[in-house]
Amino acid sequence: MIKDIKISQIYNSCKKETIKVFLKTEKGNYTASAASGTSEGKYEAKTLNIKTVLKRFPKIKNKFINKNEKDIDKIIECIGIEKIGAHLSIALSIVGLRALSNNKVYKFLNPKARFFPFPLGNVIGGGVHKGYTSEQEFLVFSKNSKTIIEAIKTNFSIWKEIGKILKSKGNVTGNNYEGAWICKLDDIETLELLSKIAEENEAEIGIDFAAFEMYKKGFYFYKNPKRKLSPEEQLEFVFDLIKTYKVAYIEDPFHEDDLKHFSELTKKVKCLIVGDDLFATQNDRLKMGIKKNAGNGIIIKPDQAGTVSRLLKTVEIAKKSKFTTIVSHRSGETLDSFISDLAVGIVSPLIKCGIYGKERRAKHDRLVEIWKKTKNPKMLKTNF
Q1: 109-379 maps to which CATH number?
Q2: Rounded to two decimals, what is the model's pTM?
Q3: Which CATH class is domain 2-103?
Q4: Which are the catalytic amino acids?
């Protein structure tokens, strides 16, 4: 039974305001905080100004007091996420699940949970996350690792080695919101360096294009080197990168309404073609993508869904259609580690949680903690 709820304004890794929830029940006290993206996609659950959330909360709060924790998502739906805002709704939803599970969300979701995701980490950044490339993220994951500890260490070793090389050549200018290196290399130079180091460490590479950010008036505009590509030329460009650099993971290579080219690329290659802005963790968007064969993987972001219940329904639809789920952090992260529990609980093959920074490390630490508490844990075998 819910005895009290309090909220406070905190700041995420992008130094932007977000919400932390404190829940008091008969069994104890629980907390959760909401992450958010650098930009908000047009299909994801909408956030509200934090001052508006704080102003509305006293009236909203009364609808939850003396209710059961398991009813939080139902109450949110009755009020409407648009009136609560996605920051507050997802933090309430997560904290309710923590109370129900006594902080063992992964076991609540899956009592037999013992398979772990491979961490997918951002090594070099660009796009709106700051950097010199138009592509937003250059990623790695180590699918040959036998333990979660080994997988995390491999990603960090690659990140550290890349940083050392960049610094020695005077090419690094710092780290972005997600802890990835900001460097003075162009698109191709970045891929040349990353693919070489990844191969030496027996790791796979990925690219998050975040293509809607570079799409204007029917063309994709790249800044380094400069190029202007039609959707058809973009398709060939992405296809060539996959072939040349043996890319295993491609995210948002086209803008969020271009299901046609998502579908054409999926037919041409065998790697993961993943939709983030395309699907926005929304059931109707995913169903549309499945019908059009637009991709074979989906990013799962809690705040995009608005509640855990909605998110789990999206995961169910994805699994029935054999879409690979990738549980993901946001650029504006907090120290909350819910996504680690979620990834283990839903048996997600990948978790996109960064490599460097205290907000990213919180997810790694939770994965290791769960690993150590699990009987006969295994890394989940992948077919990509």
Answers
A1: 3.20.20.120
A2: 0.97
A3: alpha beta
A4: 178, 301
